Amino acid sequence: xGLSQRLSTLLRSKANRAMDKAExxxxxxxxxxxxxxxxxxQVRRGLTDVAASRKRxxxxxxxxxxxxxxxxxxxxxxxxxxxEDLAREALxxxxxxxxxxxxxxxxxxxxxxxxxxLEDASRRLQAKVExxxxxxxxxxxTYTAAEAQTKISEAVSGIxxxxxxxxLAMQRAEDRTQQMQARAGALDGLLESGALxxxxxxxxxxxxxxxxxxxxxxxxxxxxxxxGEIGTGGETPQLEAATTTSGEQS
Length: 250
What we know:
By secondary structure, the protein is mostly helical. It has a domain at 7-156: Helix Hairpins (Orthogonal Bundle), CATH 1.10.287. The chain is built from 5 helices and no strands. Helix 2 (25-80) packs antiparallel against helix 3. The chain is rod-shaped, with a radius of gyration of 62 Å. Mean pLDDT is 77; it is low at 239-250.
C-alpha cells in the first residue's frame, strides 16, 4: 500500500471516528421516524386523491345515466308524435352516452381497486410506522440509560484513578516521613555519643570565653577551699594520708 493510500485510509478512519462521536443515534431514529410519517402522509394523500376521483366518476356516471333516461323519454315522445327521425336521433345520442357511461364504470372499477390497494398499503404502513415508533422509543431509552451508565462509569473511573494518585502521594509522604524520622534519630544518637558536634550550641567566641572564665573561676575557688582546709589543720585528704602511711612502713 502506497503512502497516499495509507494517508487516505487514515483520514477516512479519523473522519469516521469524528462522525461516530458527533452522531447521536436518537436524532437519527427521530429523523427516520419523521421520514416514515411523511411517506405515510403521502400514501394517505394519494388515497384521498383516488377516493375523490372515484367520487367524481360516480357523479359523472349519475349525470350520464340521467341524460340517457331523458333521451329515452324523448325518443318515446317522438315515436308517439310520429317523428321517427327525432326518436332515432335521441336513441343515437343515448347510445353514445351509454358508451361513455360504460367507460366511466370501467374507470370507476379501476379506481376502486386502486383505492382498496392504497387503503391496505396505508394500514400496513401505519402498523410499521407504529412498530418503528415503539422500537425507536425503546432504543432511545436504552441508549440514554447506557449513556448515563457510561458517564457514571467514566466518573467513577476518574475518581478511582485520582484516588490512586492520591494513594501514591500518601505512600510517598509516609515513606518520606519515615526517612526523616530515621535520619533525625540517627543524628540524635551521634550528638549524644559526641561523634557529631552539636551545631545548635552557640558559636559566639565571646560567649565561649565567658564560659571558659566561669569554669576557671570555679576551679580556682575549689582549689582555694582545699588549701584553706589544709592550712587550718583540717582533715587530710585520703591521698596524703595514704602517702604518709607508706613512708612510715618503710
